[in-house]
TrEMBL record:
The lineage of its organism: Bacteria, Pseudomonadati, Pseudomonadota, Alphaproteobacteria, Acetobacterales. This is Long-chain fatty acid--CoA ligase. CDD domains: VL_LC_FACS_like. Residues 18-423 form the AMP-dependent synthetase/ligase domain. It comes from Neoroseomonas terrae. Keywords: ATP-binding, Ligase, Nucleotide-binding. The keyword Ligase applies. The keyword Cytoplasm does not apply. It catalyses: a long-chain fatty acid + ATP + CoA = a long-chain fatty acyl-CoA + AMP + diphosphate. SUPFAM superfamilies: Acetyl-CoA synthetase-like (SSF56801). One of its GO terms (molecular function) is ligase activity.
Length: 574
């Protein structure tokens, strides 16, 4: 079956077509010089054409890889689109990367050039380039650091280059849909990151799959608050291309510490976040509730109770329905107002969202929906629907996505959204993409174990992450860790026990909660089967990006933690 291109063959073709259609509409809003600045679609196209012309003049050719290291700001999508428009391949990279991380990506991708937002980030990239012995061109939005033998330029030089928007758009419109758009290096939970080869058709397939949802929600003309890093595959696809193309203005958040204020100020229709942020937001709501009167706390608790009953049953009686209507005005309206009052979707992705956590927000009238995906699949595979939210699942597959469960329980995925393979890694590609005899398109082996229930996907664990105890029992660490981190007393947790008589846990207590962790673990153990219960635990130092135990999207690298803190784990068995 041939791959289909959809309305446009490439991402730049789509973005430049939208710019011609919506020239005077706002595209990006960002904080600069003490206030919000706006960039229109028409100006975006002019800057893309200028940067594309500048890169060409500096010898960047089709197929060349270009590193892109930047915070969420308009320069990121401008450079991203310009690189792709001339047939080169973007390599988005986290701003939190160490020099050794940059060295690995530069060495593996063979990137010749880098576009970097700040001088400080440029210095880190150059450290990596020195280790990798490669890089010909560096463009920086600030004065670039001295780099003998390397061609360096300021971003303003690129913007000053004469460009031809119409010619660039015409060129992008005839490029092959299966040509590579970007290499995104998976952060993973252990081992060196692999470069996922995503063609234009994969990201455009994600757009086609989400389009019915966007149309039903009538998102055109509304705001999206961009919080996750644009270098992450989800934000790169959804915040970088998908949502702008359906008419949302993208507002770049200034960071987690300002998010609560920005929600009330920006009044977004859509935000996306990782589960950890939802845990933090719940903690803030509950913390603020402690300052209220007993009567208000009782109203809040009742609103949550009845909201959960509406979802899970048993059905509300007549009096309870009346109570629920009153509580909607007294409690839920105030909670919705704290989030801007116009939210139509709060999308969680990147890791499993505990149903109790999502249920808390849904019961308060906030539209939390969980999606599921992988970098190797564009990355969106499925998403819950606000009007049919099955919070114990990750929703139905997107339109055009085929899913099936293998004999060993692994979820397999097929469709235009699937990657071409891993860059310079044929062995890993062959393991991940397998075409059965008699079929003409490969299935992506996700490595996730799941089931399909009434058309919805439910992910139960990672195929390789089951713990086999000394007694031969197979235990899901993801389930236990999720329950532990849902407790307010626990900030982070990792479970171990491979080949041991029972499970143990390394626990990072929440601030000021160290003396209450034992009680939290007793509560969790009460929800678990005997073989799943935590026998012993010990407090440990936080898992952070800086110590290499946390990914940039706040996922704990469980294998790396167990390896790095093996002494602590073994001590729990003595």
């Amino acid at each position: 079956m041939p791959y289909s291109a959809g309305d446009w063959p490439t991402l730049p073709a789509m973005m430049l077509a939208r710019a011609a259609q919506w020239a005077d509409r706002p595209l990006f809003r960002h904080w600069r010089h003490g206030g919000w600045q706006s960039l229109r679609w028409g100006d975006f196209a002019l800057e893309v054409a200028a940067v594309a012309a500048f890169l060409r003049a500096r010898g960047i050719n089709p197929g060349d890889r270009v590193l892109l290291v930047s915070e969420n700001r308009p320069e990121f999508p401008i450079a991203d689109t310009a690189i792709m428009a001339i047939g080169a391949i973007t390599v988005p990279t986290y701003t939190t990367n160490l020099a050794t991380d940059h060295a690995h990506i530069l060495r593996d991708s063979g990137a010749r050039a880098a576009v970097v937002s700040t001088r400080k980030l440029a210095e880190k990239v150059l450290e990596g380039a020195a280790l990798a012995n490669g890089l010909d061109l560096l463009i920086c939005t600030e004065d670039p650091p001295a780099a003998p033998g390397l061609e360096t330029h300021r971003w303003q030089e690129a913007l000053a280059t004469p460009g031809d928007v119409a010619a660039l758009a015409a060129e992008a419109a005839i490029a092959p849909a299966d040509s590579l758009a970007c290499l995104i290096y998976t952060s993973g939970t252990g081992g060196l990151p692999k470069g996922v080869m995503l063609p234009h058709r994969a990201l455009l397939a994600n757009r086609a799959g989400v389009l019915p949802l966007a149309k039903r929600l009538e998102l055109d003309g509304k705001c999206y608050l961009s919080f996750l890093p644009l270098s992450h595959s989800y934000e790169h696809t959804v915040g970088g291309f998908l949502l702008p193309s359906v008419g949302l203005e993208v507002v770049y958040s200034r960071g987690a510490d300002r998010l609560s204020h920005e929600l009330a100020e920006i009044k977004p229709a859509v935000i996306t976040a990782v589960p950890r942020l939802f845990e933090v937001l719940r903690g803030r709501i509950l913390g603020g509730l402690e300052k209220e009167t007993p009567f208000k706390r009782k109203l809040f608790d009742k609103a949550v109770e009845l909201g959960l009953r509406r979802m899970d049953g048993p059905p509300l009686g007549i009096f309870e329905r009346l109570q629920d209507l009153v509580l909607d005005k007294l409690v839920r309206d105030k909670t919705r107002a704290r989030f801007g009052g116009q939210l139509q979707a709060m999308v969680s992705g990147g890791a499993r969202l505990d149903p109790d956590l999502s249920g808390f927000f849904i019961a308060l009238g906030l539209p939390v929906i969980q999606g599921y995906g992988q970098t190797e699949a564009g990355p969106v595979i499925s998403v819950n629907l606000p009007w049919a939210n099955r919070r114990h699942t990750v929703g139905p597959p997107l339109k055009g996505v085929e899913c099936r469960i293998a004999e060993d329980g692994e979820l397999l995925v097929r469709g235009d959204l699937v990657m071409t393979g891993y860059w310079n890694n044929p062995e890993a590609t062959a393991a991940a993409l397998q075409t059965p005899p008699g079929e003409d398109r490969p299935w992506l082996h996700t490595g996730d174990v799941g089931v399909i229930e009434d058309g919805n996907l439910r992910i139960t664990d990672r195929k390789k992450d089951f713990i086999k105890t000394l007694g031969g029992d197979m235990v899901s660490p993801a389930k236990v860790e999720s329950l532990l981190m849902a407790e307010p007393e626990i900030h982070q947790a990792i479970v171990a026990g491979e080949g041991k008589p029972a499970l143990v846990a390394l626990v990072v207590p929440a601030d000021g909660m160290a003396d209450r962790v034992a009680e939290a673990i007793r509560r969790v153990n009460g929800k678990l089967a005997t073989i799943e219960r935590i026998r012993h635990f010990t407090p440990t130092e936080p898992f952070t990006i800086e110590n290499g135990l946390l990914t940039p999207t706040m996922k704990v690298k469980r294998r790396a933690v167990i390896e790095a803190r093996q002494g602590e784990v073994e001590g729990l068995y003595r």
